[in-house]
């Protein structure tokens, strides 16, 4: 049951103590407003409790528009808020969904969560957000926490290294297989679990990045990846390799630095790759690209004149980099919104067929790429 639109939030009386959600004054408690009930509204409006209940629940019944408006106005003035716990006992629903995601400090995930929340809000659902800080154990604990709150469903964006540890992967698989709460997996696939799934087409994204650099004339392209146990990183690398093969460029595994989707990995990877004769770097996330730019600045290397750079995500930081970043755009907010829509459909129909949604990324050109430098010797 959603809160009708005519309700307004409780207000303060100007004192130090917060007011509760009702509008019934208790003089013996210093004038603090106490939570009002439908009986209080009925008394104030001069109607029956049944009439108030029918109006506030939006039931179609033989109640005059005048009486209906009076009840709604009285509820507003008394700052009535329905007791969601009591409603949930009757409806067996909480109108709340959860989100378990891997890194709340990463702007990519923050933007994705924003899209999910906006979609939930449009459907009168609340959202509980849990951060697992890239830890599988915390991910499992957060799922248990959401289940204990009797949420209607949740969206899970698993940790980056979930597939790197067989024992931890198995623990999460078993948790999800035993889970009776509807859920959707976002961005990172989990093998051997039957679920709805939403992600970008990362292999296409890898092809777009590599094709852009190759068309500029680059043939020695370094890659700084996330964990290669991660589905997205593997697919981006596969797309990169497809382009090299299509253009007859040999694949050199020494030009691939495996890290994490973090600034530090971008910095460390750049320090290693600059010892080789690369002319460009494909960073597998915008955060990694920030680390690349930091290292380039430290070593006096000009982007794009000495080194071209392509990122991935087109998060909010991409146009704000010291050199505005050419990057692969994922439809970040759309991914969050679509995950929410699929979850709500799953809640309404738990038996429906599971779906996979893959969204095409796009190349966004800014200022971080140019033709290869004339002397391709190592920069360090």
From TrEMBL:
Pfam families registered for this protein in UniProt: LacI (PF00356), Peripla_BP_3 (PF13377)
SUPFAM superfamilies: lambda repressor-like DNA-binding domains, Periplasmic binding protein-like I
Single annotated GO MF: DNA-binding transcription factor activity
Keyword list, A-Z: DNA-binding, Transcription, Transcription regulation
Signal peptide (UniProt feature, chain positions): none
Ranges where the HTH lacI-type domain occurs: 37-91
Transmembrane annotation, as ranges: none
Protein name: Sugar-binding domain protein
């Amino acid at each position: 049951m959603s809160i009708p639109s005519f309700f307004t939030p409780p207000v303060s009386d100007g004192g130090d103590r917060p007011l509760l959600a009702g509008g019934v004054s208790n003089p013996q408690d210093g004038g603090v407003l106490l939570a009002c009930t439908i009986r209080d509204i009925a008394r104030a409006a001069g109607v029956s409790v049944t009439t108030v209940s029918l109006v506030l629940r939006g039931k179609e019944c033989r109640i005059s528009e005048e009486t209906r408006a009076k009840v709604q106005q009285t509820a507003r003035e008394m700052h009535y808020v329905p007791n969601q716990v009591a409603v949930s006992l009757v409806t067996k629903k909480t109108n709340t969904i959860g989100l378990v995601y891997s890194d709340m400090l990463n702007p990519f995930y923050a933007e994705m969560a924003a899209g999910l929340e906006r979609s939930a809000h449009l459907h009168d659902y609340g959202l509980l957000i849990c951060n697992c800080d890239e830890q599988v154990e915390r991910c499992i604990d957060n799922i248990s926490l959401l289940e204990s709150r009797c949420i209607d469903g949740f969206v899970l964006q698993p940790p980056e290294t979930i597939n790197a540890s067989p024992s931890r992967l198995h623990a999460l698989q078993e948790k999800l297989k035993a889970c009776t709460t509807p859920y959707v997996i976002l961005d990172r696939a989990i093998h051997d679990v039957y679920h709805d799934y939403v992600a970008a087409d990362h292999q296409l994204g890898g092809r777009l990045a590599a094709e852009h650099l190759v068309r500029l004339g680059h043939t020695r392209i370094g890659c700084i990846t996330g964990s290669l146990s991660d589905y997205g990183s593997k697919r981006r690398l596969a797309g990169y390799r497809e382009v090299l093969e299509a253009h007859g460029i040999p694949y050199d595994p020494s030009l691939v630095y495996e890290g994490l989707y973090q600034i530090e990995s971008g910095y460390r990877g750049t320090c290693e790759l600059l010892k080789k004769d690369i002319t460009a770097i494909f960073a597998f996330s915008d955060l990694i690209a920030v680390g690349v730019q930091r290292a380039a600045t430290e070593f006096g290397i000009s982007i794009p004149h000495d080194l071209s750079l392509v990122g991935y995500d087109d998060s909010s930081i991409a146009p704000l980099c010291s050199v505005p970043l050419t990057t692969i755009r994922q439809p970040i907010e759309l991914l969050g919104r679509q995950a929410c829509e699929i979850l709500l459909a799953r809640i309404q129909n738990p038996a429906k067929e599971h779906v996979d949604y893959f969204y095409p990324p796009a190349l966004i050109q800014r200022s971080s790429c140019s033709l290869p430098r004339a002397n391709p010797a190592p920069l360090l």
